[in-house]
Design a protein that fits this description.
It is built from 14 helices and 2 strands, in the order ααααββαααααααααα. The chain is mainly α and 311 residues long. The protein has one domain: Farnesyl Diphosphate Synthase (Orthogonal Bundle), CATH 1.10.600. It has a two-stranded antiparallel ribbon.
């Protein structure tokens, strides 16, 4: 029997992968420290909900959305003290959505990042309150003058996050997802579902860095388009992972989409077809960064990371 050999990545590819991982790790630590500072433990009866908020936001995760906010902001010369606050804000908003998604009334998942989900660690009522508080705190951070001295930029951040996370964005996508269980959705319907549920917040995370940097409209538009396609590639890869990865790799229950009768990219296109679609969308995302030169290399490499990841 002949053996199939896998070639090692080219040195340049291996170097860029290492630089991306180092960059993501460094920014994740900065975001983690910022969240820890903004959300200290609290005494009194309300301390339990703060503990749950900290449990849901600290101690792990890819910090993809926070990374996007920070990395894009750095393209426009933003002070790290400012962009780390915006990165922390979007991670809090994302954490709230995961806490609520894991509840029995939603996706009913007992695992998150390899640990008991928040409602399993505490209780359902505390998890709901923790999610509510994380959502409101995300906006509180953006509205604070410490995030930016220009009120117009703060309002721009608040408005964009509200649009990305409400009924016309993430929440609307979750509603479509729940309504679609056990029903065959078409490919355009699945694309719209995930553009709202997952894509809108990823697009916002990228765009927030441009808003914070007061970028001109043409550059902000290109960054938003990059974020849109990155979000699409992320979700397609996520569907492939749900069908092919183990619970240990994912850090959450594997195969839940199929068990719930959800329409996914894999259900419609097959594993190989979905992987090809992820690569196609990723290539389109790359083109939006052409005008930024080498300074955007980490954002370019992030596209490949999103498609190739195993967790």
């Amino acid at each position: 029997m002949s053996q199939t050999t896998v070639s090692a990545p080219a040195p340049d590819s291996a170097l860029r992968t290492r630089l991306l991982r180092e960059s993501m790790s460094s920014r994740a630590k900065a975001v983690e420290a910022t969240i820890d500072q903004l959300l200290p433990p609290a005494a009194g009866a309300e301390g339990r909900v703060v503990e749950a908020m900290r449990y849901a936001t600290l101690g792990g995760g890819k910090r993809l959305r926070g990374y996007l906010a920070a990395e894009v902001a750095s393209l426009f010369g933003v002070d790290p003290a400012r962009f780390n606050r915006v990165a922390a804000s979007v991670e809090m908003l994302h954490a709230y959505s995961l806490v609520h998604d894991d509840l029995p009334a939603m996706d009913d998942d007992d695992l998150r990042r390899g640990q008991p989900s928040t409602h399993r660690k505490f209780d359902e009522a505390t998890a709901i309150l923790a999610g509510d508080a994380l959502q409101t705190m995300a906006f509180e951070i953006l509205s604070d003058a410490a995030t930016h001295s220009d009120a117009a930029i703060r309002i721009g951040l608040v408005s964009a996050l509200a649009a990305a996370s409400g009924a016309a964005g993430m929440v609307g996508g979750q509603m479509i997802d729940m309504a679609g269980e056990g029903r065959a959705l078409s490919l355009p319907e699945v694309e719209r579902l995930h553009a709202l549920k997952t894509g809108c917040l990823i697009r916002y995370a990228a765009e927030s860095g441009a808003i914070l940097g007061d970028a001109d409209l043409s550059l902000r538009t290109r960054i938003a388009a990059y974020g849109h396609d990155l979000g699409a590639a992320f979700q397609i890869a996520d569907d492939v992972l749900d069908a092919t990865a183990s619970a240990e790799e994912l850090g959450k229950t594997a195969g839940k989409d199929e068990a719930a009768g959800k329409s996914t990219y894999v259900a419609l296109l097959g594993v190989e077809g979905a992987a090809r679609e992820a690569r196609r969308v990723a290539e389109r995302a790359q083109a939006y960064l052409d005008c930024f030169g080498a300074e955007a290399d980490r954002l370019r490499d992030l596209i490949q990371y999103v498609v190739d990841r195993r967790s």
